[in-house]
Automatic annotation (TrEMBL):
This protein's encoding gene: coxB
Domain Cytochrome c: 214-308
Membrane-spanning ranges: 20-45, 66-86
Uppermost EC category: translocase
CDD domains named among the record's database cross-references: CuRO_HCO_II_like_2
Protein name: cytochrome-c oxidase
GO CC annotations on file: membrane
Catalytic function, reaction form: 4 Fe(II)-[cytochrome c] + O2 + 8 H(+)(in) = 4 Fe(III)-[cytochrome c] + 2 H2O + 4 H(+)(out)
Keyword Disulfide bond: no
Domain of life: Bacteria
Record carries keyword Transmembrane: yes
One GO-annotated biological process of the protein: ATP synthesis coupled electron transport
Pfam families recorded: COX2, Cytochrom_C
């Protein structure tokens, strides 16, 4: 960006519309500022102490017509700006059907992206030029905010729910990604790169990414990445069940039932840990509903199943 350029790079369809809105607001409010400040200065000079300017009541036409005039003008201007901003925002928030869907998971302090074919990245997003891309975003811990200045896009990313955002990139290149919500020690370093590629290049790139075949291995990585290993470890200060060998075992629940720890049980324990509390443990585990998708659940369960051998050792 040259120092003479007013705006950051523009690389998405809505960037131009948002810049126009911003410029419009700047020009209109600048004009109002000049008018009001100018009148103020003129009146200060004209009616300064000791000046000979005539004083007395304002003429009737000022008290009535002009007053009505500027009240109405301000009202219509405000309504016009409301409509303009609202229309721009609505257009920017409604993803077209068939948009390429990418999952984004934020955590202290990184961005994790996942493409429909299973390819994954950290602190990076690749997008095809000219095609709509929809981001389904959630956070594993605190509130973050996904901010790409070149796209003029910023969206809060919240734990426990999905927020979405879409864009159509217009110019190949590399653009900065920031976290725009203070989220802890390394907030300032929580960023990455958005790479916009020609559609053919993107298709080639995404197909060349490693596909996930090793479910237990992926699950083990998730187990660490999601923080499960922080509590479910023999050495952990938190009193949580050690999961090696849990698969297939009978589990005693606080409500008196005894169930087998099969796939469904493990899945429910991740999504609704407070429902089936295990005897002897506090119900302190948070739900991972919304933080892991079905594919992640499959991986986690596959990992837990793979721990059978370890327990037997
Ligand atoms: Cu994440 Cu700031």
């Amino acid at each position: 960006m040259s120092p003479l350029t007013l705006w950051p790079a523009t690389a998405s369809e809505q960037a131009a519309r948002i810049d126009m809105l911003f410029t419009g607001l700047l020009v209109i409010s600048g004009a109002i500022l000049l008018l009001v400040a100018g009148l103020l200065l003129v009146l200060c000079a004209r009616y300064r102490r000791g000046s000979a300017a005539p004083r007395g009541d304002l003429p009737d036409f000022i008290r009535r017509d002009v007053e009505i005039g500027w009240t109405a003008a301000t009202l219509f201007l405000a309504l016009f700006l409301f409509w303009w901003a609202g229309a721009t925002q609505l257009r920017a928030s409604d993803p077209p059907a068939g948009a390429l869907e990418v999952h984004v998971v934020a955590k202290q302090w990184m961005w994790k992206t996942r493409y429909p074919n299973g390819a994954r990245e950290i602190n990076a997003l690749h997008a095809p030029r000219g095609e709509a891309m929809r981001l389904m975003m959630t956070s594993q811990d605190v509130i973050h905010s996904f901010f790409v200045p070149a796209f003029r896009l910023k969206q809060d990313v919240l734990p426990g729910r999905f927020t979405e955002m879409w864009f159509r990139a217009t110019k190949p290149g590399e653009y900065r990604l920031f976290c725009a919500e203070f989220c802890g020690t390394d907030h300032a370093r929580m960023g990455g790169t958005v790479t916009v590629m020609e559609p053919e290049d993107f298709a080639r790139w995404v197909a060349a990414q490693p596909q996930e075949e090793d479910l237990p291995g992926e699950g083990a990585a998730l187990f660490t990445a999601l923080g499960c290993s922080g509590c479910h470890a023999a050495a952990s200060a938190v009193h949580a069940p050690v999961l090696a060998g849990v698969y297939g075992r009978m589990v005693h629940l606080a409500d008196g039932r005894t169930v087998r720890a099969d796939e469904a049980y493990l899945r429910d324990s991740i999504l609704q840990p407070k429902r089936d509390v295990v005897v002897g443990y506090e119900p302190i585990m948070p739900s991972f509903d919304g933080l892991v998708d079905e594919a992640d659940l499959q991986r986690l369960v596959a990992y837990l199943q793979s721990l059978r051998g370890e327990a037997a050792r």
